[in-house]
Each structure stands twice: as structure tokens, then as C-alpha cells.
Specification:
Elements (H helix, E strand, L loop, with lengths): L1 E6 L4 E3 L5 E2 L11 H11 L4 E7 L5 E7 L2 H5 L2
Antiparallel strand pairs: 1-2, 1-4, 2-3, 4-5
């Protein structure tokens, strides 16, 4: 299982330097889901989603939209 942060509007992956890429090989990978969510909250990333990619047993993905507390309050 691999965990990434995506820029939801473009589908680009977050890189370790903070820029975005189309290439998953260049993307920042998180050790666990909590670390990925904490990173988004700390950096106040808007329009982000957590991508959980499962390589084993069918090769499928789960996309979870992430909203900062500020974004959630506007709704």
C-alpha cells in the first residue's frame, strides 16, 4: 500500500520539494495515513486528496478528499 497526496483539480502528485508532478515515481510517499493528513493540515493544502494505492490483490486506488478546518467551515 502506498499513500500519496494529490492536487484534486489536476490529479498531480505532491513532490518532496512541495511542487506537483504527473509522475508517481517522483511523488512524496507517506508512511501512514495519519502522517499524510497531518501534513495537509499543517501546510493548509487546499484542493488536496489522499490517494491510497494498493499494489497487491487487484491494483486499485481509494481517493479521499481532504479539507482543512478553514475549508470545512465555509460550507
Amino acid at each position: 500500500m502506498t499513500r500519496y497526496i494529490l492536487h484534486a483539480p489536476t490529479g498531480r502528485y505532491l513532490k518532496p520539494n512541495g511542487s506537483w508532478t504527473r509522475e508517481p515515481k517522483e511523488a512524496l510517499r507517506f508512511d501512514d495515513i495519519f502522517s499524510a493528513v497531518r501534513f495537509c493540515v499543517q501546510k493548509e493544502l487546499g484542493d488536496a486528496e489522499l490517494l491510497i494505492h494498493f499494489e497487491d490483490g487487484g491494483n486499485f486506488d481509494i481517493h479521499l478528499p481532504l479539507k482543512t478546518p478553514h475549508q470545512s467551515a465555509r460550507r
